[in-house]
Amino acid sequence: MHYLRIISLFILLTSISAFAHAQDPKSDAYATQFQAIVDQHNLRGTILIFDVEQDTFYSNDFQRATEGFLPASTFKIPNTLIALETGVVTNANSILPWDGKKRNMKAWEKDLALKDAFRLSCVPCYQEIAGKIGLSRMQQYLSRFSYTGMDVRKETLQNFWLVGASKISAFQQVQFLRDFYNRKFQLSDHTYDSMLQVFEIESTPNYSLSGKTGWSTDHGDNGWFVGYLRRGDSMYFFAANLEPKDARKVEEFLPAREKAVRQALQSMHAFQEKN
């Protein structure tokens, strides 16, 4: 009975979220360009970009942007915030020691600074972090973040973002990022400042780009690239949920997630790649 109540609440929250998204300003102005980019990379899916100055969402597929998928490694964003706020880690340079056991990627088999574990998407590093955060604090902070749709239980604490029933939509990803950037969560300035360091991919005199990829295979290939671009006073928040048309071409699919978003932002004249 308790589980049924949880499912009912999840459906209600999802419905409320979908209604809220329906009220947001949307435009198909770049739909053709975005879809051409998705096709160019042999992908299916949605690229969703929110232009703060225009107060408008742009996408090639608004319907898919409302559908939920496993967050995969994009969950490292809230996971890192919670770890910083609770003291599980201290700052962007906190060392996550390797236990000497074999890992799926050679790059993970060493002590890693938090910012490097984030960039390298070190799964065992963040599973250990989730375990140290604990079930109660994880649930508490996800509720505080309005990060709904996660199947967080004792049995799933260290993998709920990678396998199972957890779901988040592109619209929800963007809203979470906007709330984070605008410091709407009750978190310390130290936590926010440290997360900004961890999150940043590149910075030039003209723009800065922050983001995180994600990839899960529990329900077929499910890829993400979420984040934001800042150029002067202009801000663009984005969430791309993509899958390969040919599941055998994973090596092409993985870099294509970020490449597609960069091209979409450039099609909006949001920025130009650094030389």
Computed structural class? alpha+beta
Order of helices and strands: HEHEEHHEEHHHHHEEEEH
Report the total helices. Answer: 10
Uncertain regions spanning at least 5 consecutive residues: 1-22
The general outline is globular
What does the radius of gyration come to?
18 Å
Description of the structure:
With 275 residues, the chain is an alpha+beta fold. Helix content is 42%, strand content 19%. It has helices at 2-23, 31-40, 62-65, 76-86, 114-119, 123-133, 135-144, 170-181, 189-199, 250-267; strands at residues 26-27, 43-51, 56-59, 95-96, 112-113, 200-203, 208-216, 222-231, 234-244. The strands form two sheets. The chain has a seven-stranded mixed sheet with strand order 1-3-2-9-8-7-6, with helices on both faces. A hairpin with a 4-residue loop joins strand 2 (43-51) and strand 3. It is globular, with a radius of gyration of 18 Å.
List the main descriptive attributes of the protein structure presented here.
275 residues, alpha+beta, 7-stranded mixed sheet, 10 helices
In short:
The protein has helices at 2-23, 31-40, 62-65, 76-86, 114-119, 123-133, 135-144, 170-181, 189-199, 250-267; strands at 26-27, 43-51, 56-59, 95-96, 112-113, 200-203, 208-216, 222-231, 234-244. It is of the alpha+beta class and 275 residues long.
Question: What topology does this entry show?
Answer:
Layout: H1 2-23, E1 26-27, H2 31-40, E2 43-51, E3 56-59, H3 62-65, H4 76-86, E4 95-96, E5 112-113, H5 114-119, H6 123-133, H7 135-144, H8 170-181, H9 189-199, E6 200-203, E7 208-216, E8 222-231, E9 234-244, H10 250-267
Helix pairs in contact: 2-10, 4-6, 4-7, 4-9
